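Design a sequence for this backbone.
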C-alpha cells in the first residue's frame, strides 16, 4: 500500500501531510501516558516486527502494493498512541532506506497505514471487549476482528485520497476494486498473525498487553505448602 512519489497531487499530499503531523503530535503527547518500564522495550520489538512484516509486499495496481500493516497489533500491544508512533517510524525508515513509498507521499502513507489502522482497529477492539467476556479468548477474538477490519479500512481511506488527488490514469472504480478487494484478503492474514501474536504474549506475560490491562490478573507463582507430620522437635544445645 506504499504510495510512490507523484501518485497523489501536491495539494492533497500537503493536506495529508498536515493530518499526519497533527496525528503524530497528538500521539507524542499520548505516548507519555502509555510508555513505562514494561511498554518501552516492547515498543521497540513491535516496531521491528512491523518493519519486517511490511517488507512482504503484494502487487495491487497502478504502482501501489499491499502488505501486512501492523497498526492494530501495535496498538493492542503498546497502546494506540505508541502504536501510531511505531508504524510512523517504520514508514519513515522504509522511505529513507529502501525508497518504499515516496517522501512526498509520506503524509499519505502515515495517514492511511498508521492513523487509520490504529483508529479503526483499536477502536473496534475496545468496542468488542466491552461486549465479550473478560477472557483471553475474547481478547484474541477481538484482536482478530479488529485487525481484519483495519486493513480494508486503510485501503478505503487511500481510495478516498486517490479520488481527491490521484494523478494516475486509472479510474476510481478500478482502484477501489483492486485496493479494497485485495486488502480484504491481506486482512485475513494480518488478523491471523495479530491474534496469534497477542495470544502468545497473553500466555506468558498478560501484563505486557496494553489492550488487555485490567481485564485479567497477571500470572502468579504459587508454591504448595508442606504439612509437617508432627510438631517440630525442640533443638538441642
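Sequence:
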Amino acid at each position: 500500500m506504499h504510495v510512490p512519489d507523484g501518485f497523489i497531487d501536491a495539494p492533497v499530499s500537503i493536506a495529508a501531510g498536515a493530518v499526519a503531523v497533527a496525528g503524530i503530535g497528538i500521539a507524542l503527547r499520548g505516548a507519555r501516558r502509555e510508555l513505562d518500564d514494561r511498554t518501552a522495550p516492547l515498543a521497540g520489538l513491535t516496531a521491528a516486527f512491523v518493519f519486517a512484516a511490511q517488507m512482504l509486499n503484494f502487487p495491487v495496481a497502478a504502482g501501489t502494493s499491499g502488505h501486512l500493516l501492523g497498526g492494530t497489533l501495535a496498538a493492542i500491544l503498546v497502546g494506540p498512541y505508541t502504536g501510531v508512533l511505531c508504524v510512523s517510524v517504520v514508514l519513515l525508515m522504509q522511505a529513507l532506506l529502501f525508497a518504499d513509498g515516496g517522501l512526498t507521499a509520506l503524509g499519505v502513507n502515515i495517514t492511511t497505514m498508521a492513523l487509520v489502522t490504529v483508529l479503526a482497529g483499536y477502536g473496534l477492539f475496545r468496542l468488542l471487549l466491552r461486549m465479550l467476556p473478560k477472557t483471553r479468548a475474547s481478547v484474541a477474538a477481538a484482536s482478530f476482528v479488529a485487525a481484519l477490519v483495519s486493513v480494508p479500512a486503510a485501503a478505503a481511506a487511500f481510495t478516498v485520497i486517490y479520488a481527491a488527488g490521484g494523478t494516475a490514469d486509472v479510474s476510481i472504480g478500478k482502484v477501489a476494486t483492486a485496493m479494497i478487494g485485495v486488502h480484504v484478503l491481506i486482512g485475513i492474514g494480518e488478523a491471523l498473525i495479530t491474534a496469534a501474536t497477542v495470544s502468545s504474549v497473553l500466555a506468558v506475560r498478560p501484563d505486557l498487553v496494553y489492550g488487555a490491562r485490567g481485564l485479567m490478573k497477571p500470572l502468579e507463582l504459587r508454591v504448595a505448602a508442606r504439612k509437617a507430620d508432627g510438631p517440630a522437635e525442640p533443638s538441642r544445645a
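The chain has a mean pLDDT of 85.
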